[in-house]
Design goal:
The chain has four helices and 72 strands. It has 812 residues and is mainly beta. It folds into five domains: 128 residues, no CATH class; 198 residues, Pectate Lyase C-like; 85 residues, Elongation Factor Tu (Ef-tu), domain 3; 108 residues, Immunoglobulin-like, CATH 2.60.40; 94 residues.
């Protein structure tokens, strides 16, 4: 099966043999080699024709023409109307070195065979052929670079600079349509025909009218495993414009195309189907990727729309004019527009979203994900739409809720790595690719293939990654106009992580509406340990383009996860390639990057310190995981210091313990019981430390200090004289004072008795003359005491009991 990993290998050798063509009875072989020096009869490689047109003239239905590497032109004169005229039933194959005896010995990547319209002054396109090739019914074009056609004549000579198919049904495979131009359809024009296109690239073609690469009119086109890169028009369809007819695009990549309307595809009363394809970094004024118009029925399955942009409306999609748009099991992320960052619907269009993710798109004016004008309400079912509220709290500005919808974070793998470019990117116009370099990066070869690159994080365009070396990344498209050395880049992966809400939450119907495989070619599967919240049969289809859990090598690591991070399936669950003390199983469970030691699951206190009032009676200290994990995480804790006394005096907290985070949990608490007494005292602390985590690593805050803030009121001690008695007279007489005392703080008190005379003189009674204990321990209740002393010779007179308002005793 053609999967994204095969797709990601790019132009250089994605296939190793020619397309097996059916429907053509193999007749004679005719050989063409520009360097042959034989009889020029085409009967062998030695006697090959030196020009292709001679072979076409000689061929009859059922013949095959084998063409050796080199450049061939339709004419040796300057007649722009001349083209390679194909014949019905004749198959023409390029990519031979010359000398091959078997069809599958050819290699069109190594042995480049070019059909060029540059018939006049070389390098000047104003005198080029209007059409390089003219197709014929049941013919085959395979293994060529078709370039330099320029259809700028009049009438029929305005369309199809590379290949014109007016009523001709044929098969095209393993070709590159490069730098052709026309009023419309500079690479291919298809009119009233049936065409199959497989394994072809459309690069840097341009038109002044419609269809930056292909123009379809009443044509039925099946396009598979193709790349459309850097094509553009000022009007409709940056890659393809289709009016009427039926067109299907399967396993294709559309990158860096541009148009006034429909950065990639624009339909007018056509039927357009897209399956398992990528749309990245395309631009338009309306419909950054697809513009469905005037009764066009556009159906999209299992595809990704990332980093496309429109200046007007519909960063990814615009649907209007009574058209139909269905989007199923697709991901629409990071697109941007003024109205409808992802989608704009209007003018009686009918739109249905199923099992899809619309998330992280941006609108500068209205509707980050979806913008609806003129009541063209899309129906949304079993999809995650950011800002929709989900079915539980549906936001009507997102369309009509048809059940099972979600809002929130889809938990993509997300940013795989970031960095800073160390060199200026180099664009290769022949392949439509840019190579960007980060010296010393140490990446695993092709670990990033089929992921997405934002080459300059100050902007939003993203590009499809063809592959990578240890220190360079190759993308489809040209980002050199705004990306320079020193810019910061990021690479994103839109597979889903453990505990994504998208897992097993979609709608299934056994392949009738929902594909039986995902974008990676993996079968829809029931993910172990996850609830099946979806509907239909099966009820475990994941929302989005990727199934979560396929594990073909049974190492408990999903294939998609291993391929994204290692580029192969050779790693084991117990390995720790980045040396961060978390094995691959733990990294996978947490959704972290196993090749980056800075990307890891951590456990730590939420804060280094916290505090609370004593009167609260209790407190909690929070411990967090940096991200959810599908594995159980444990961490030990212990009281390691502080000024508070445990055991129920100041607080109650066990000396040691263990916190257990069950799968999906991210927060736990340690409880402290605080003893709320009436004592006025200084604030006290409890110091707790966590250690020895399992399936996680220690984070920043592994020590937490909790402060118990005393909020008791400082009430002074109270002492009152209740009675005074004396015996005898004059010096030496005995004086007995009875008093009571209490203290809200239950402190130890020293009672100091003073006497004063009527004239205001005051005597402090010498402690040595006191009988009884003046050091007392108070409680919060009244207690009584007695002080007795013998009056000295200087005693002024009788002792009288003071009024209660007077402080006859003082406590300190």
């Amino acid at each position: 099966m053609f999967t994204t990993r095969l797709l990601a290998r790019g132009l250089a050798g994605i296939l190793t043999a020619g397309l097996l063509v059916t429907g053509v009875v193999r007749g004679g072989l005719i050989y063409v080699d520009a360097d042959a020096g034989g009889s020029n009869t085409g009967t062998s490689w030695v006697n090959a024709y030196s020009d292709l047109q001679s072979a076409l003239t000689a061929a009859v239905s059922g013949d095959e023409i084998w063409v050796a590497e080199g450049t061939y032109k339709p004419t040796t004169d300057t007649d722009r109307t001349k083209s390679f005229q194909f014949k019905s039933g004749v198959a023409v194959y390029g990519g031979f070195a010359g000398g091959e005896t078997e069809h599958d010995q050819r290699n069109w990547v190594t042995h480049v065979t070019t059909l060029s319209g540059d018939i006049g002054t070389v390098g000047v396109n104003t005198d080029n052929s209007f059409h390089v090739v003219r197709g014929a019914n049941s013919s085959v074009l395979s293994g060529f670079v078709v370039t330099a056609g320029k259809a700028d004549g009049s009438g029929a000579d305005l369309l199809g600079g590379g290949l014109v198919n007016d009523g001709a049904s044929l098969s095209i495979s393993d070709c590159v349509f490069l730098a052709n131009s026309a009023s419309s359809g500079p690479a291919i024009q298809n009119v009233s025909n049936t065409v199959t296109i497989v394994g072809c690239s459309f690069i840097e073609n341009s038109a002044t009218g419609n269809g930056g690469a292909i123009y379809n009119s009443y044509a039925n086109v099946d396009c598979q495993q193709c790349w459309f890169v850097g094509n553009g028009v000022p009007s409709y369809g940056g890659a393809v414009y289709s009016t009427h007819g039926s067109q299907t695009y399967t396993d294709c990549v559309f990158a860096d195309n541009s148009a006034g309307s429909g950065g990639v595809l624009r339909g007018y009363a056509a039927a357009i189907t897209v399956r398992r394809s990528f749309f990245a970094g395309n631009t338009a004024n309306y419909g950054g990727a697809i513009h469905s118009y005037a009764g066009t029925a556009t159906r999209v399955w299992d595809s990704m729309f990332v980093g496309n942009r429109s200046s007007g409306n519909g960063g990814a999609f615009t649907s209007l004019g009574s058209s139909l748009l269905n989007v199923t099991n697709s991901v629409v992320v990071g697109n941007r527009s003024a109205y409808g960052g992802a989608l704009l619907t209007t003018e009686n269009s009918t739109t249905a979203l199923l099992n899809s993710v619309f998330w992280g798109n941006t609108a500068t004016t209205q509707g980050n994900e979806i913008c609806i004008l003129e009541e063209a309400l899309p129906g949304v079912k079993r999809s995650l739409v950011l800002g929709s509220g989900g079915s539980a709290a549906w936001n009507g500005t997102c369309g009509t809720d048809q059940g099972g919808n979600l809002d929130g974070d889809p938990r993509f793998v997300g940013t795989v790595t970031t960095g800073i470019w160390t060199a200026v990117g180099v664009y290769d116009s022949a392949n439509g690719t840019t190579v960007l370099t980060k010296t010393g990066a140490g990446w695993t070869t092709n670990a990033f293939a089929a992921l997405f690159l934002n080459p300059d994080t100050t902007q939003t365009l993203q590009y499809y990654i063809v592959g990578n070396t240890a220190d360079s990344i190759t993308i489809y498209g040209d980002c050199t106009a705004f990306t320079v050395a020193g810019d910061t880049f990021s690479i994103s992966d839109f597979h889903i992580r453990p505990y994504s809400p998208c897992i097993d939450a979609g709608f299934g119907d056994s392949g009738a509406t929902v594909s039986e495989t995902d974008l990676d070619g993996n079968a829809r599967c029931d993910d172990a340990g996850m609830p099946n919240t979806g509907t239909g049969t099966p009820n475990y289809v994941d929302i989005g383009v990727y199934e979560f859990g396929t594990d073909s090598d049974s190492d408990s690591l999903p294939d998609a996860w291993e391929m994204a991070h290692f580029g192969d399936l050779d790693e084991t669950d117990s390995g720790d390639p980045d040396g961060d003390l978390l094995d691959n199983a733990a990294e996978y469970a947490a959704g972290t990057n196993p090749t980056d030691p800075a990307s890891k699951l951590t456990v730590a206190f939420a804060y280094a310190s916290s505090s609370g009032l004593e009167s609260a009676g209790s407190a909690v200290i929070t411990v967090d995981l940096s991200t959810p994990s599908s594995a159980t995480v444990t961490v030990a804790y212990a009281v390691t210091g502080g000024t508070a006394t445990g055991g129920g005096v100041d607080c109650t907290l066990e000396g040691t313990g263990t916190l257990t985070f069950e799968p999906g949990e991210t927060s736990k608490t340690i409880a402290i019981t605080v003893i709320n007494d009436a004592l006025y005292e200084v604030d006290e602390t409890v110091v707790v430390t966590i250690s020895d985590p399992a399936n996680a690593t220690p984070g920043t805050n592994t020590v937490h200090t909790y402060t118990i803030q005393d909020d008791d009121i400082n009430i002074p001690p109270q002492v009152e004289i209740t009675d005074i008695a004396q015996s005898g007279s004059g010096p030496g007489r005995t004086v007995t004072v009875q008093f009571r005392y209490k203290d809200a703080n239950a402190d130890s008190l020293t009672i100091l008795l003073q006497a004063s005379s009527d004239n205001g003189a005051t005597w402090a009674v010498p402690v040595t003359t006191l009988a009884g204990n003046i050091e007392v321990t108070a409680t919060t209740d009244w207690q009584t005491g007695t002080l007795t002393w013998t009056a000295g010779a200087d005693w002024p007179g009788q002792v009288s009991r003071p009024h209660r308002s007077e402080h006859a005793c003082r406590a300190s």
